[in-house]
Design brief:
Elements lengths: L7 H10 L7 H28 L7 H8 L11
Length: about 80
């Protein structure tokens, strides 16, 4: 993915909030790329779920289904 959407500072704050107080720039960029790639792939899957259901709007249920296996954590009903 060439275009970046997540702010480097936000990712660094997330890592710091989990106890990683000293983190290299490369580590932050690696996590940022991983998160952006996963978000893009999940969005594609969720969009397909919505389209297959005859909708254009992607819902949180679509994203949860795209993630898979988390329906019971979020009390999603079919």
């Amino acid at each position: 993915m060439d275009e970046h959407f997540l702010a480097t500072a936000a990712v660094r704050r997330l890592m710091k909030s989990r106890g990683a107080y000293i983190v290299s720039q490369k580590a932050v960029e690696s996590l940022k790329t991983h998160l952006e790639d996963n978000a893009a792939n999940l969005t594609k899957k969720a969009l397909k779920i919505a389209n297959d259901d005859g909708r254009e709007k992607v819902s949180s249920d679509d994203l949860i289904k795209a993630i898979g296996g988390l329906e019971e954590l979020y009390d999603i009903e079919d």
